Input
Amino acid sequence: MKKLLLLLLLTAVIVPTMAQRAANPDSAVTTKQQVTIKGKRIAYNATTGMQPVWDENGKTIAGLFYTYYERSDIKDRATRPLVISFNGGPGSASVWMHIAYTGPRLLNIDDEGYPVQPYGYRENPESILDVADIVYVNPVNTGYSRMAEGVDKDKMKEKFFGVNADLKYLAEWINTFVTRKGRWASPKYLIGESYGTTRVSGLALELQNSHWMYLNGVILVSPTDLGIERSGPVDAALRLPYFAATAWYHKKLPQDLQQKDLDVLLPEVEAFTTNQLIPAIVQGGFIEDTRKKEIASKMARYAGITEQSILNYNLDVPTNFFWKELLRGEGYTVGRLDSRYKGIDRQDAGDRPDFNAELTAWLHAFTPAINMYLRDELKYKTDLKYNMFGPVHPWNRSNDRTGENLRQAMAQNPYLHVLFQAGYYDGATDYFNSKYSMWQLDPSGKLKNRLDWKGYRSGHMMYLRKEDLVKSNDDLREFIKKSLPKAGQPAKY
Output
């Protein structure tokens, strides 16, 4: 009898725990919240939970975790914008922009974005929730999103883990979400960061062609190359303006350049890059020695490293080497995603850093905050691990035409506007490459009045710096307001 009682007690403890590990793919919890934005108190509903992904036979094959913020004092949803937010990786959760950029809560960091203790979060006075409702979506294996119990997970990978597979199932998911929440009439925006820019660029056309859902805007935060060709001399040359920005930040430029403001210096470096450096690298081994040395000398002035090191790489300096070399004399490396951050390697020798100093700092700050916030404030209870980065590899990158997808979506939809946002100190998706993507997105030039670019004095996640948090969110507000058509304005050329 005692053994039976003990068994029943153990079962009562174990079964709910196992059930929580196998998350319900169609469930949600809603809480009522408030936040002060730009000095105004705003009430909103926060819904967080899972919404299913179905296969072609209607079988549930995954549950995607999302958090949806809907302002509760708005009666007319037809004119209320909806922003659908993705991060990147691929394999990254939506945590970054959620609790550090556009959402109503902001993690505890200092004004430059570095971790502080105690961990936690506070109100975000810059959130765009005053002008738009927002949903943060976690693709499969990120956050709490998982494949459904009982599916063949190896066989399902081809449905989720690739450029085009990603677009197909996420577009279906968005269609269901918009339908369930009654948001078909609302102006709609996609925002993506890093690989999320590949995702939202492709989704713009997938939603339009397969779901007849037309967008008002796409926002590309620290964009990837979007499948736009830039190999060879162009690829090699486009890094230099980023090198110059980083060297300027760390005060490694000659005095005459160092005393210039970044807004003055960078146009000068960009002009040299397009007008002199690309033509020089195009000549390869047939460039005259004197010209090669002249170009290397100018590059050294702008990059803050030696002329000889540039010649050693035949004018094609790898970013890994630059991150190791710039502060080698001081015993530091610089960060990949944000070169304001410094790292310490085992030895100063070598041609690449041991680790990404900035990413380590960010995981330090974000991981406790998102776990506390979802459980304690949004009341979402689960024993699943929140995947900051989840297993999604190998990722099928073939046939990436997402830049062309975005161009087609813009051409077919006169309402659609695009905003690029980039940090000057981002070495992974550098700012000048994002300008190049914008320039090459539409070779005809007929869409350029709907394309805009904004730069910030920080890195990949420009919003971690307080000054840029304010500026970048204000830029989003302005973009949303500008891209909303006037009442009765037709979508036509």
Summary: The longest strand covers residues 40-54. The mean pLDDT is 94.
